[in-house]
Amino acid sequence: MDGENETGAGTMAKVTGGELVVRTLMKAGVKNIFGLHGAHLETIFQSCLDHKIPITDTRHEVAAGHAAEAYARSTRGLGVAMVTAGPGFTNVITSLANAYLDRTPVLYITGSSGLAEAETNTLQSGLDQVAIATPITKWALKITVTQTIPRLVAQAVRMATSVPTGPVLIDIPIDVLSAQIDEESAPIPERVLLDSPSAPQPKAVEEALALLKNAKRPVIMAGVGAYFADAGEELRAFAEATGIPVYSDFQAHGLLPSNHPLYGGTTHKMSDLSAPDQRPDVVLALGVRFGLFTMGMNDKLVPLAAKIIHVEVDAKEIGRLRQVAVGIVADPRETMRALNVRAKSEKWPDRAAWQQTVRNAKLERCKRMQEDLNRPGPPIHPLQAVSAIADNMPEDTIVVGDGAEAYHWFNEVVRQNQPGSYITHGFLGSVGMGLGLSLGAQVANPKRPVLCLVGDGAIGFTIAEFDTMARHKLPIVAVVMNNHSWAASQHFQEIVSGKNRLLGTELRDANYHQVAEAFGCFGRRVSKIEELGPAIKEAFASGKPACINVSIDVAPIPPEVHLLMSRH
Ligand SMILES: Cc1ncc(C[n+]2csc(CCOP(=O)(O)OP(=O)(O)O)c2C)c(N)n1
Fold it and tell me: CB-based contacts of 226: which residues, under 8 Å, 6+ apart?
């Protein structure tokens, strides 16, 4: 025998490599795949057809990748994207990078040219896809023997979904996928997924409690890890038992409902606690990854003097930017459970005055927004637009935020009652992900409304995805904040280089809604603020994918952008 792909004798049932991929994914609980066809993947597509595993096929591979990311984020589970050899792989790289930086558990399956065709200059070949993917994945591997597919795909799923989670790429040559082997020679593993969250050490729990109890102005910052660990209930119980206010970063919105009296807002709003007697002195950072969402090394959000209790599944994150008083490498929910058990028997100080300070900061921020909200138009002030969106979308809408200033504006008004309801930029800050992310959010949540808030620059990247929405009956409502500009770039240019030094940052006014209409979607143009609310309601009521193209004023700069520009 010169290879494990030999078929052997006898009457045993034969299976293709593609069939083994699909059977293993089914054992891992995979119910949806995102992708774009290529001949290299044909056996996987055929097996998906046989097993009725739906493939949401997109118009560009990057949208499939982003859809798998949003699916993973929405379900707190695995997303799967499948792309063909060569250009299919190169097109999905931005998604790989995004998932890598955000630790999103996505399995990327790529086709590649046959092993037997090595070094033959054949179609879509010549790239070492594994080498290219290695620095931007948790693990990347080429499978070269058909019998090993179940074992290695299962391992890939475990690698992606175990903490710290992250993307994994499995590259399978076309001849390995299409080979027919005896099914008994490649058994499918029974248990693919692991579930073993780690508990904190009791000593660390005691240290954390002591610090929080003796603090004058403690806060809890909830981060991505708190969301992925599903720590909302435990977080709320602890906040209520101790009276400690909670702020949350981009993926943790909604863990504590926005209208909860102890909710301070998104982490950037901690910058409003700027007076010396308002600055937090102890911060419980729950699943937080310090950096972009905590304003890097500076102290605008977390004072340098504050004592930090950092709970994170990845030891690498602890102490990375800030020295910690207590570092706990453990699951955030398990840690909150342990803290809650002990919190019950403690007497906690009266935090009424501190809670009032946090509430006042929120009220002050709302007051500062009133002038913009009341401004007569047109043009529509962007804050008026996002406010009308928040007021008129259905209660349980999942918002996907894209563009740059568009979502920074939305951060001012975001209200959320349940976690996983706001999917937006992570550390890569890649403009143009919105429509792809929305596909995944809608597939994962067929009963919930999905609204994609997107800049006019951002929508151009994958505008053909309105076709994917229409074909797959995904009634996503995209609202384009049309300011004829790459506004975040334009404002940066204006501030740094001068208002008369604009280059490459202006766009034309375009009828994006008509592009959506051309794909069979609902379209509306809105230029007066009073038209926006009804248009949003009409779009959701249509049951179709929709594009509302809103003309907004380019001039205003969101408060968060001012804050970010001032960080150095
Ligand atoms: C893929 C990518 N290309 C370029 C950039 C640089 N960039 C950051 S913000 C921005 C402008 C975004 O414009 P738009 O989508 O219209 O949103 P707005 O800021 O107007 O809300 C650009 C080009 C980026 N972050 N990502």
Answer: 232, 235, 248, 252, 255, 286, 287, 288, 332, 333
